[in-house]
Amino acid sequence: MDRQTRHRAILEAVSQGGQARVLDLATRLRVSDETIRRDLKDLEAEGLVQKIHGAVIPPEPLGEPRFDRRMSQETEAKKAIARAAAAQVRDGDTILLDTGSTTAYVARALHGHRNLLVVTNSVDIARTLATRNGNRVYMAGGELRADDGAALGVSATAFVQQFRVRLCFLSIGAIDLEDGLMDFHLEEAEFSRVAMRRAERTIIVADHTKFGRRALVSVCPLALVQTLITDQPLRAPFQDRLRRAEATVLIAERAAA
Questions:
Q1: Distance, CA of 177 to CA of 88 (rounded, Å)
Q2: Secondary structure in 3-state letters for 45-57
């Protein structure tokens, strides 16, 4: 059975049952577990399924999982991206980080840096970097979102507009070839646009699952991306588009097993 036929069979099984176990798929399609896992990785990258432990389920609706769940997804990829992002930061730097699971990992990767001036709208990131190594942390005000402790809205964007930083690290909900960087909430997209304007350089941190996905709100076209850090080589269409934009693309290396 060829790859395309397996993919159709997997999607049919998930659609009919609402969930399909890896072992059951391997038995049904008469291939190894490893082959099924590679197929599922391809299908998840295209946004067609969502992997869970030992099984696969239909993709999330046009929305995103809760913050605690996102923190447990693609953890090795996010840690690798975070290490590469932290390598761009110097002691004494001025940085801005938005709310997101990947930027939360970036904050953790900055544990050894000193005397940072940090601007953020994330309670998690502020708590991670405050009172450490002489850092100064400025936290945007406003109503905190219950899910992830993010401050968003008019107060948060007005607060960020007061600062000028060297580096801005932005997580992103989805990256579409035509609509560019996208997010799931209007206020997050608005915050990201303001943050980008207040930095000398913006670094997008996004694992491979974000590519080829769509979200509700456009943040900016790919032509405006300056630097992108991800964990796998880009597919040709994204690579070509970012090359034309003269963006710097860094592929983070995962830690050795």
A1: 26
A2: HCCCCEEECCEEE
State how far the Cα of 223 lies from the Cα of 180, in Å rounded to an integer.
Answer: 8
Q: Outline where 50-185 has alpha helix (H).
A: 67-71, 75-86, 101-109, 123-129, 154-160
pLDDT at 186 over 70: yes
The owner of tokens 């601007």 is 119
Provide the whole-model pTM: 0.76
- Res 146: pLDDT: 82
- Of 100, 103, 196, 111, nearest to 148 by C-alpha is 100
Separation CA 70–CA 93 (nearest Å) = 28
What tokens were used for 105?
A: 């990992």
Sign of CA dihedral 201, 207, 211, 214: negative
- Give residue-wise pLDDT tens across range 40-98: 988 887 767 877 778 887 766 556 677 777 888 889 999 999 999 999 999 999 999 99
Say how far apart CA 23 and CA 40 lie, in whole Å. 12
